[in-house]
Amino acid sequence: MNFILSTLFILASFSAFPAAPIDERLAGYVQKFNLIPLSAPAARKHKLFLLGRDLFRERRISGNDNISCMECHHPRIGTADGIPLSLGEGAIGLQIGNRKRMQGQGRILARNTPALFNLHNVNVMFWDGRVEFNPETKKLITPIPLKREVARTLTSALAAQAIFPMVDHDEMRGLRSSNPIADAKNEEEAWELIVEKILKFPEYQKAFAEVFPGQKINIGHFGEALAEFQGQAFFLAETPYDRYLKGNVEALTTKQKIGMEVFFDKAKCGICHNGEHLSSLEYKVVGSPQIGPGKENGDDYGRYQWDNQEGNRYAFRVPPLRNVGLTAPYFHHGGLATLENVVEHYDDIKTSLNNYRIIEQFSNYLRPLKAHDHTNDYIRIGNIPRDLPLEIGFTEEEKEALVEFLRFGLTDIRLQN
Ligand code: HEC
Ligand code: HEC
After folding, report:
1. Cβ partners under 8 Å of residue 163, min gap 6
2. Best of 126, 164, 288 to mutate for ligand 1, by most ligand atoms within 8 A of CB?
């Protein structure tokens, strides 16, 4: 028995409430699925953090000075944007309260904006994992090769990821002929222009010189600062679930415990959502539909686009689940509006895919989003791992408990009102 488990039992046996049978059963799943509380990032490098915070909300890192990371990843919107498919540079506003983020001159991107919670030690980034870092070998995999000095500066997947939105025409760089960065002949040159542009501002010149004394600043240093900020500011894992794993048997309510048991037992969610992040961080197919412009041929093949493995057509990185209650809508296309919809999808995947309709036509976009095309549904179903049950048959109580576990059990208590 590992340390955490034994603490769980010791605390349980000394508290006024003896370990209930459900806690004993859950302890079995804790062991089986290697569930551990989320570990904190390394000590904060304060000046690097402050520089990263400034860059995170700095619109001048975009080609047309009109969009920062924060427009799409807003702390008040669960570090995302609250809409199904992200809207690129030229879009306006934020989705807060009754306000809406509107398309304006922006493009509809292929995918949903993911949340940025607890990514400090996640080594694969994006829905398709196209940025990857191995902390042991320091090997970095990126969608395009990086200049040696840039690659050498980057020390995490989170840092490497951060340099890519800036050179995506739709996201931040701007459409061709709208600005010099957009017109740069390749990404490398665009990055150099961004560095040059930002270092012209004395406050940035000073901040970079202070944080990286004696170094020639490249875009990798921007990535490092952005990663320090995101890794620290969005480390939010003080959840009832983490407290429970640390031995506080009363941290989860009875309903949440029932939901947790349904999650790992009947529903077999733990096949993929396991370990420290409640994600194996592997690529899996779960029969998700597709809406919007897609990546190629109006479709989104997910991991297949990078590894060309037929079995990975429509596979996406298993998402980590902490704070998932705050990051609707769901899936790589954001086409499932609520956690209830997600649970209903898993309850009967084939029927869910067959009957899929965008639940609400979102007025954020100039035109209705392109609907799901059923032609390849047989591949979306055929590539689902055999150990994932296609039909679960939840009772209403089980569904409710499962959603309760996801929505509240996994949410940082500082973010719960
Ligand atoms: C136009 C909206 C938009 C902007 C601006 C934007 N992002 Fe994103 N971000 C996205 C979308 C959409 C994805 C998912 C893309 C994909 O997986 O293909 C993403 C993915 C990410 C991820 C990967 C998260 C994960 O779990 O894999 C990180 C980290 C991130 N963005 C950080 C940033 C940073 C840092 C900036 C600023 C330099 C930024 N983003 C700017 C929309 C945006
Ligand atoms: C075979 C692996 C696998 C199993 C089993 C699995 N999931 Fe997932 N889960 C995924 C993948 C992959 C995605 C992303 C799918 C996509 O984006 O199209 C996902 C997405 C999600 C999301 C949305 C997260 C987000 O940020 O959009 C939730 C919530 C979720 N799963 C909960 C569950 C629950 C509850 C169960 C059990 C009923 C479960 N999953 C079973 C692999 C799995």
Report:
1. 150, 154, 191, 219, 220, 222, 223
2. 126
